[in-house]
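Researcher: Go.
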Amino acid sequence: MFDPGVYLVTQRTASAGRPTDAVVVDALDGGLGAVQLREKGRSARERYHLGRRLRALTDEYAVPLLVNDRVDLALAIDADGVHLGASDLPLPAARDLLGADAILGRSVSTVADAREAAAKGADYLGVGAVYPTTSKDDVDPDEQGIGTDRVAAIDDAVDVPIVAIGGITAERAPEVLAAGADTVAVVSAITAAEDPERATRRLADAVDTE
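Model: Structure:
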């Protein structure tokens, strides 16, 4: 069962001008449990070279590396899995390409989508955006801030791990976890922090407390 602890989604444009590699190293030192290579706006070539560097780092720290959207890129950098959205490859197709041991995540914001993703083999669900967020530019405006009640409803409906995402901070994490999320994923709460290592540690402490 996928149980990563604090999950970082990378994005250089939300990293206060710092290289993604440097932010990831600091976060890993702070107890990060998983990394997703996102990097919207960068070319496939740039993401490939960054992904190879992140693969070496995550291997060193023994944490999983996933790729946002791109199954081909996940294969090219030997990632542990992929995180898919509604417009990406269907889960069964991704499983066929990546194999039985790959970690497959799926973004959902409704109970119906959660049930469908679980039935089609998702290893975990990225549920959100829980709170309004500026870190994702592809969230339906009507779904900005689905709230913890929706997290609870999705938790009641499925038996796969829930990774809550969207506007989550160390202060908000306990509320989200109490609603039924198994852990949290963040972008700017770590990438934009003055001290990413300390920010990660605070989030990890919040998750572990629950």
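Model: The two ends are 18 Å apart (CA to CA).
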